[in-house]
Amino acid sequence: MKILETDRLILRPWKPEDLNDFYEYAKNPNVGPAAGWPPHKNKEISEKILQDFIEDDEVRAVVLKENSKVIGSLGVHQDAKRIGINARMIGYVLSENYWGKGLISEAVKEVLRHLFEDEKLDIVSCYHFPFNSRSKRVIEKCGFKYEGTLRSACKIYDGKVYDDVCYSITKEDYYHS
User: Fold this and answer.
1) Which end of the chain is less packed: N or C, by CB atoms within 10 Å?
2) What is d(CA 64, CA 104) in angstroms, rounded to the nearest whole number?
3) Backbone angles phi, psi at 166, to 5 degrees
4) Span 4-175 CATH architecture
């Protein structure tokens, strides 16, 4: 995985020593549920997921340059709705302590640059739950276009089923915006 950099952030592979920073934001009940996963009850849960991040190499740590703290994550995954297409889906999460500062938008824009300019993708998608207005704002700020809403499309950790609000950005959108 290529390390990416912005003015304020480094987007890099996860390391075992990121555990404390990861657990710090992953245990917050306002963070995980907005993305569909439960708050981490203990460091052992975070450690297992961190190991998966390291092994799978699809999720970058979002690191604040000013203090080298991991403040979130940004994943690039196969889009299950676009199998066999030159496409990826992104997802992100940010520590509540850093909400409202434009940091995750900055990270997403750099990942989009990398995906379109370096990886030569044709389309990138992103989804959010209807109640996650913060994520919607990031998606729109980053140039994604609303595609529609898949009703009752995603079952999360607690058994609740939510709509998937779907967005995408094509290479044409990216290069002509």
Assistant:
1) C
2) 11
3) -105, 135
4) 3-Layer(aba) Sandwich (3.40)
Element (H, E) at 70: strand 69-77
In terms of Cα–Cα distance, which of 59, 113, 53 is closest to 91?
59
Distance CA(90)–CA(86), nearest Å, equals 14
End-to-end Cα distance, the chain: 27
* Predicted TM-score (pTM) of this structure: 0.95
Assess whether pLDDT exceeds 80 at residue 1. Answer: no
Each residue's pLDDT tens digit, 146-164: 999 999 999 999 999 999 9
- For 89-105, what is the mean pLDDT? 97
Tell me the C-alpha distance between 15 and 69, whole Å: 12
Residue ranges of domains in the chain: 4-175
Task: Give me the torsion for CA of 117, 2, 111, 118, rounded to 10°.
Answer: 10
